[in-house]
Amino acid sequence: MQIQQYHVHSLQSSAKTNKNPYDVSLSARLHGPGGAELTVPGFYDGDDTWIVRFSPTHLGEWTFETISDLSGLDGQRVRDLQCVPNTHPHIHGQLRVDPKHPHHFIYEDGTRYLPLGDECDWLFALDLPVARRYLERLQAHGFTQVLMQVYAHACSWSEGQPHRLVPPPRYPWLGDNQRPQHAQMNPPFWQHLDALIAAMQSLGIVAHLMIQVHSKQVNWPPLGSADDDRYWRYVLARYQAYGNVIWDLSKEAWKVADPGYWEGRGALVRRLDAYNHLLTAHDIALEAGDLLADQHHESFHAHILHQRAKRAWPVMNVEYGYEPGPIPTYPMITLPDEMRCRTWEILTAGGYPVFYYADTAWDVFELSTQPEGYQAFQIARQVMEELPFWEMEPHDHLVDRGYCLAKPGAAYLIYLPEGGRVLLDAPEAPHDARPRATWINPRTGQHLLAGPIRSGLNSFCAPLCFGPGDALLVIR
Fold first, then answer.
1. How does DSSP classify residue 33?
2. CB within 10 Å: which end of the chain, N or C, has fewer?
3. How far apart are CA 254 and CA 447, in angstroms?
4. How far apart are CA 57 and CA 36, in angstroms?
């Protein structure tokens, strides 16, 4: 059987058991070229069906053998797995932190990753056609990541509003949120989530998957209990084969005031995840984490600088404002102009932003209107991908006002929140024989040449035709 590198494959078996099937131990050892070896957990999918899901990491021949305490599952072997080259343009293997540039990301196959996210915590609750329309709209506007919950139940601020998904149409366990049966999973819920994660992978969108949330009325199993462990093991078994997944232990993890619990959950993830996905916990600095997924509501540029200086890891501000929609939901609002300014403050500090639109972020979901922030992110994607952003560092001292991200002598990105004139001290001009300085209107995407650049002090003034407001200066 031929399987493409980095693609997700599911090997299915049937067996009956008299015990709780979600307590059956199942894993598989995979051996590949060059000594590659993986041990991946399997899971129960209902109707006497067990699945082991994996993605091959190396080209060539692989073998597969199951290990289980259920005799009907133990010792199954497959020896004709041929891993062939990947042909999908949006699949690149596991997402990693770039070891050469540890504030940034890179895929397993060497493809650069620019994380521009949107928060849609209720994505799990959407019907597939609606979810697909939302994801395709995100892709068209340059987004590459979605912050989402495995499950959340309700928000107090959206009661009585139209298009509200409360209670969600699917529940992770048998029973309901008032009377959960935490010892038994609900396979249709998880099969639907499978389809969503797979659709995101096909579109090149990372699922920043928050495994718990403790502020949205979920009746979780007692923390650290057997039911709690079963839930975590199940999530890890079902989704670790997907390269487009970041594990986030919990939305607003600080609401569980027990650092030991989160460090223990992080250790569990590390132990069971054969692919070593990126790990974080929203709004706490997880000691065992790979990146910071923070929410911060002031001094956006300075906060990113501060966090980058503390530790060499990627820093994301995943909740820095709330663009309102026509449906009243979250009482705090941030107007589009301010959201855009905050976005560029984060990017020019070497951090990464996650957008929040009130009418698609939580338990109200309405696609009839499009937030202004979508265009701002589309422009940001175009600007950043024309630059060696992973090699650029904050250099605000090179300008007399605004913010400067630069690889001196090669590339400069200057953001002026109020437009106007800026002085740039270029220690050396870009090495290109014909260096380009371009003004970009971050509101419309309009480009205008800014004139030549030379070593030493350079003066540039934002075009009058941009009108009042912010401006970008890009030098390549």
1. G
2. N
3. 43
4. 8
